[in-house]
Amino acid sequence: QVQLVESGGGSVQAGGSLRLSCAAFGYMDSSYCMGWFRQAPGKEREGVAAVDVNSGTSYADFVKGRFTASQDNAKNTLYLQMNSLKPEDTAMYYCAAGSWYGGSCLRTALFHYWGQGTQVTVSS
Known about the structure:
With 124 residues, the protein is mainly beta. It has 1 helix and 11 strands.
């Protein structure tokens, strides 16, 4: 069992930055992926970015060049640095973790574990 605890959400004006953190507690598969997803009111959940066990990263097209995902293995923590934020980035952001067997981690991993979410609000 893995517990994921997100932090770092908040409110910011357009063009601003936030950094999300996700601390993982428990045993992770030897081949794992950790990722960020988001869901805005009335919209489906969508993948944002992910990092695999080899520190390979994958991103959704709408955040490329603005968001950076990284991990600190010593701290079992996943990060999402979000720059140049736009009002359309407003959503609940969730951390997820699961098994990865190759390919684009964000799109192919089986995400078994989810955090409670942290709200990001970007005002214009």
